[in-house]
Amino acid sequence: MLKGFKEFLLRGNVIDLAVAVVIGAAFTAIVNGLVTGIFNPLISLIFDSSDIAKAGITLRAASPGHAAVILAWGAVISAIIQFVLIATAIYFGLIMPMNYLKKAQLRRKPAEEAPAEPPALTETELLEQIRDLLKEQQGGIPPQRTE
Questions:
Q1: In terms of residue numbers, what domain contains 88?
Q2: Is residue 58 part of a domain?
Q3: Of residues 120 and 100, more confidently modeled
Q4: Does residue 117 sit within a domain?
Q5: Which of 29, 69, 105, 136 is 20–30 Å from 40 (CA)?
């Protein structure tokens, strides 16, 4: 049981996945900093709000015993910006280079030979096969070839 677990861990997939999670976490911190430090202030300036996450529409003002009800669309815009930035960076930083490397590797590999095609049948042989198939469909036994 432990041997199988050791093989699973050392196969490479688990290690690659662990590295990807660590890099993803670090990259998320970079994108969060970019959105918080650059994009949110610009959007806050456009919508005349002190903080983009607090930007929204007040549906019901605060009253004694009731909290204010705010439709906070600013937080949604911030999350969308983060998603688009992460997706863009992953595509251009990881997906495109990997696709390029795969294509380059395929170009370097010699083309594998296609399986040999069976020899072409003569017209007579082809007609005999058609005849035999038709007889099988009609319930008859195909005639034996004598050659």
A1: 7-108
A2: yes
A3: 100
A4: no
A5: 69
Angle between helices 2-10 and 13-34 (to 10 degrees): 50
Whose tokens are 């997906």? That residue is 95
pLDDT of residue 115: 62
Nearest to 76 by CA among 35, 21, 29, 26: 35
Long-range CB contacts for residues 109-116, cutoff 8 Å, separation at least 24: none
65 part of a folded domain: yes
The tokens of 30 are what?
């970079």
DSSP characters over 25-94:
HHHHHHHHHHIIIIIHHHHHHHTT-S-GGG--EEEE--BTTB--EEE-HHHHHHHHHHHHHHHHHHIIII
Does 146 have pLDDT greater than 70? Answer: no
pLDDT at res. 105: 83
Looking at residue 25, which CATH number applies to its domain?
1.10.1200.120
Q: How does pLDDT run across 118-142, given as a tens digit for each residue?
A: 778 888 888 898 899 888 888 766 5
Q: Which two tokens stand for residue 126?
A: 């082809």
Please state, for a pLDDT cut of 90, what percent of the chain lies above it.
Answer: 0
Does 118 reside within a domain?
A: no
Tokens found for residue 72: 């906070």
